[in-house]
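INFO  loader      accepted 1 record
INFO  loader      residues=156
INFO  predictor   begin
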Amino acid sequence: MIHMKSAEKEKQLLDYVSVYDQKIQETAYYLRSFVAKNYPEANQPIYDSYNAVSIVFSLSDKMDDAFCHIALYKNHVNFGFNRGTAINNPELKLEGNGKLIRHYKVKDLDNIPVDQLSELLHKAVKISNASNPALARQSLKSQLIIKLTSGKKVRP
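INFO  predictor   done
INFO  writer      dumping tokens
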């Protein structure tokens, strides 16, 4: 974790995101705001990784407690659910074939199914709370947490 003031962390996030096209940036910031409005207490660990920049939302400082994430790619943004395989989701078809994560691919701001994503988001938080009951009893003040990453990047 990189220790810096809140304004410096926001600037670091802006720097990470600035390499993407304007459409991808706007979509990512819209989705970030969407989650933060629903769960303002959630921490936001930021990962600048090999093939994407990811904004994670967690009700603790642990990745194991994360309920969703936003991953920026060259041509789209994934709105991901960290325990997506456990979500009963007739609202919206999610993609992915891993053991846990499922995502909805967002290509532009005009076609975001806000109501369906909101329903899935609430389900994801319930699943996260059920997997760690201590989460529901704690009080958080949201933090942006920059996670140190290294190595070559293949993302923009």
